[in-house]
Amino acid sequence: MRTISRLAAMTMLLLTAGGHAGAAEKVTIAIGGAACLCYMPTVLAKEIGAYENAGIDAELVDFKGGSQSLTAVLGGSADVVSGYFDHTVRLAAKNQKLQAFVIYDQFPGLVLAVAPGQTGKINSVKDLAGKKVGVSAPGSSTDFFLKYLLSKNGIDPTSAAVVGVGLGATAVAAMEQGQIDAVVTLDPAVTVLQTRHKDLTILADTRSQKDTEAMFGGDYPGGALYTRPEWMAAHPQETQALTNAILATLDFIHTHSAEEIMAKMPANLVGNDKEAYLAALKNALSMYSTTGLMDPKGAQAVLDVFSVGSPEVAGAKIDISQTYTNNYVNAVKKAK
Length: 336
Known about the structure:
- This protein starts with a helix and ends with a helix.
- Strand 6, helix 7 and strand 7 form a beta-alpha-beta unit.
- It is an alpha/beta fold.
- Helix content is 46%, strand content 15%.
- The chain is globular and about 55 Å long.
- The protein contains 18 helices and ten strands.
- The chain folds into two domains: 2-108 and 220-334, Periplasmic binding protein-like II (D-Maltodextrin-Binding Protein, domain 2), CATH 3.40.190; 111-205, Periplasmic binding protein-like II (D-Maltodextrin-Binding Protein, domain 2).
């Protein structure tokens, strides 16, 4: 905890060095589903004034899933993605370069759960062949996690019909209304479902270090800020300021209670069931990074997983070190 406190303490020094005088720079951040606790640091940074303090006028644009937020940045309608690091790996296989520059989730938090109406009928990943499985959006991290699990269990990764159900309340509704047979989703949706359906069957869970290590053999980075390297080259001060803001927010998360954090979050994201949101937030706290750094072993784990679920990634000679940089986080360290 002290490490990140020291990092965050340097924010003002870096801002002074970076010369953020006058008007704040406008940066548009595309989020792959703001209701998801996996992206909570990006939203919280806005609510606690971390972007503003870092000299950034951040506009957050909410999308249904990571694949759509990615399209916005590749198409130029947004500057930076707040999404899962694994997209940078998938795009590297297509020779499209994106780099993560600050990591805020050290675990992915992805959960594969069976719809309440299918309890007792679907008891393993193998039972999902021919079933309808909800993901945030086709081509998103939730979709690739499903394909990885199917492959790992000896099932054709295309054997389940994928249905885009978003994250949060829409995913819960799709499960409860029987529109899908299972879902890959994240908190708070998982905890809401577990609260309402005590016998909810969970087939895979990566919300804790223990479960993540059991599945992937180590840390597996989730949410990060990433963008095109040429945008970073043209906007070094803004990239540094965004890094400073996220580090300050991670420091806030690890020095405040779940109740205090929830009080800062927008009411529409907390929703009507505050108790379930609070329980989900408490479950999620260990997911958030304490350093903002990418662990090279974690990046390699993502590449290994995608090589199983995607023939395109498996066949590409990807230099994983090109998909992220720790330079901006390290710049904060050096300034201390």
